[in-house]
Design goal:
By secondary structure, the chain is mainly α. It contains 18 helices and no strands.
């Protein structure tokens, strides 16, 4: 069977950016940067993203493009059987992430529906906290929303690469950008917004710490969808003549640009209204309705915002599901539709327990974490850094020659690959090992 490909280069870039821009950019980025003191963290995050992030992204995309396989096949192609274990870990990682990501995706659907009704927009943060907690702890409603979100994701995946993922990503990313600009305009014209902007941008170097570097690096991996074979899978649908290095630079630039705009949209508003930016996951679901309650036409802004959140989560969740689906198609030649339906049901079932672990199963903890927290921790802090480490070992050490041959025009290979391979040989493994050990 010939492998599906993207219809255009821009389609590929937007799909990859759609994967990257997600809940990570919209709730994690603003509160983690606020927690770490704003500006200084922002600079470190930018440096991490544009060095380690871009390098691993190019490496992953190249592995996909050359092997034309999803992660397991790609690792096997370059490193032989033992390395395919890294691919299996990636598939498993995407599987676990989607199981709980879809639960949060369901929350965005609930809040989207809720913003059409009265009662959500109030300046009383305690009331909003109660709304959030009552919803999350309800044993049925979040699961219903989770099912709906997983169903929408699966429906897109069933339609394939060009007709499903590419078409939806192109439309939704354009929409996301438009909604973001409208909300940004409103947020920045609030009285006093400039102080919030300054707090976000001006660095406070007294807050520099080792932990801040780790936070910045971890966030860069999660936000750029790296370390679990997602960019490898998307890279496997890229034509041979497409330059993945410039594409990766575009994807990173677009993702970081959007994250920055999101921060610029949320943080000034949060400061203007004197709310707590370090609210964590609640920042979005608890604080934003409070922000909207102060605005003329707040209901419309709330609808736009939760729609934005839903769209961002959806374009990421399809990329997560595609990793598992393409693995089964590649390895066992299963039909796309059946594979998608079965995988969606299994992930939905695991997600049920993740969702319940915030409510009725709260008492069951592992290492002091709920199942939801554990799934998040293990994937972001252990599996993704390990995956990125394996990618850099393959590109920098194990199969460097294969990449050089592929990229070479018979005489020499492009200069950028020398930088990438040096980075993958020395810098990336060193930095990643530091994160891993600090996290453990
Ligand atoms: N990058 C996505 C986000 O920020 C999450 C994600 C991680 C998606 C890994 C795909 C792979 O929400």
């Amino acid at each position: 069977m010939t492998r599906a490909t993207w219809g255009s280069r821009i389609g590929f870039i937007l799909a990859a950016a759609g994967s990257a821009v997600g809940l990570g950019a919209i709730w994690k980025f603003p509160y983690v940067s606020a927690k770490n003191g704003g500006g200084a963290f922002l600079i470190i995050f930018l440096i991490m993203s544009f060095t380690l992030g871009i390098c691993i992204m190019i490496a992953e995309m190249l592995m996909g493009q050359i092997s034309r396989k999803s992660p397991v096949g790609a690792y096997r192609f370059f490193g032989g059987k033992p390395f395919s274990l890294a691919g299996y870990m990636g598939v498993l990682c995407g599987f676990i992430i989607l199981s709980f990501y879809s639960v949060v995706g369901g929350w965005t659907l609930f809040y989207l529906g809720r913003s059409f009704q009265s009662g959500l927009l109030t300046s009383d943060v305690r009331v909003l906290k109660t709304i959030f907690e009552t919803f999350v702890e309800n044993p049925y409603l979040p699961i219903l929303c989770h099912a709906l979100f997983m169903g929408i994701t699966a429906a897109i995946i069933v339609c394939g690469i060009q007709k499903g993922i590419e078409r939806i990503s192109k439309t939704l990313m354009a929409l996301l950008f438009l909604v973001l600009l409208i909300l940004l305009g409103r947020s920045l014209t609030l009285e006093g917004a400039i102080d919030g902007v300054l707090h976000f941008i001006v660095p406070d170097f007294s807050k520099l710490s080792a932990e801040m570097f780790l936070d910045a690096m971890g966030l860069a991996f999660f936000s750029l969808s790296l370390g679990m074979g997602c960019m490898m899978t998307y890279g496997s649908y890229v034509n041979r003549d497409t330059n993945v290095a410039t594409s990766a630079v575009c994807v990173t630039g677009l993702t970081i640009g959007i994250s920055f705009l999101v921060g610029l949209m949320i943080l000034p508003a949060v400061y203007v209204f004197g709310l707590n930016p370090a609210e964590g996951p609640g920042l979005t679901f608890i604080v934003m309705p409070a922000v909207f309650s102060y605005l003329l036409g707040g209901t419309y802004f709330a609808i736009l915002f939760f729609f934005l959140l839903f769209v961002a989560a959806l374009t990421s969740s399809i990329s997560l599901m595609e990793v598992s689906v393409s693995f089964f198609i590649d390895e066992f030649a299963t039909p796309r539709k059946l594979t998608t339906v079965i995988l969606a049901i299994v992930m939905f079932t695991i997600g049920i327990f993740a969702s319940l672990s915030l409510g009725v199963l709260k008492e069951f903890t592992f290492f002091g974490k709920t199942l939801f927290g554990l799934m998040d921790y293990c994937t972001s802090n252990i599996m993704m850094p390990l995956g990125a480490l394996m990618t850099s070992v393959v590109v920098g050490w194990r199969s460097r020659k294969m990449f050089q041959d592929y990229l070479s025009d018979g005489v020499r290979y492009p200069k950028w690959f020398s930088y990438i391979s040096i980075f993958c040989r020395f810098v990336a493994p060193f930095l990643i090992l530091i994160i891993l050990f600090q996290n453990l």
